[in-house]
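One such shown below:

_____
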Amino acid sequence: MRQLYSAINTEILKACRSKILWISILLFVFMGIMIGMLMFISKHPEIAGKSAALGTKARLLGKNDWPSYFDLMIQMVLTVGCMGCGIVTIWVFGREYMDRVVKDLLVLPVPRHIFVSSKFILIIIWSLLLLLLLFASAVITGLIVNLDGWTWVVVRDSFVLYIVSSLLTILLCTPVGLITCLSRGYLLPVTFVFLTLILTQFVFVAVPGIILYFPWAIPALYSGLAGSDAPHPGFISYSVLILTSVACMTGTAAWWRYADQK
């Protein structure tokens, strides 16, 4: 346990000293502010002026109230949040290969699964921090914009939905970590992250019969944003997601343990 604690502290220290942590924080705060501004433009369409694109985007947001606003935040989790967690995972694992320090880590008298566990713990903390900052900045902006329909019941229920959707999305970062280690670089896992987003949309449209068993579709099904006609995930769906996450985490640990890292 002491080794794991030390490894986590080391990973956190490396992240805090990197520019990407602070860039990602600023980016997610900015996105939270921007979705609030879109709601403001939707509430006051005259501000869009002659910008047809901006006016159209604002009109697509639906009602100018807090329930619609929280739905928009959850959509951000399922899209931007998925990409953000994927990029964080790629950086945490990929930088060891790009900086050519992975062999230096492996000669340390520390079990290799400790390195993998500490990296995934950092990814969970980092990703959850970004999504919480997105939520907080969006809520503050929404309060400034003065949207309608604020009640503590709506806030409570929406926050629970937001957090669970975020955690389900974060669990799917482990396949990205495994692919990053297998490819020993950035290009293939970045492609994989975007491919999963495209493939999820394809599954919903072309083969809806398997969406309950497709891990990347389950967060959208849980959130209810997949539509009223979409099925609600049950025990099997969550089991598939968790098993996928655990299997890829185990595969990553096995790769670090047995693969030739030369």
Q: What stands out?
A: The chain has one domain: 2-258. The chain has eleven helices and no strands.
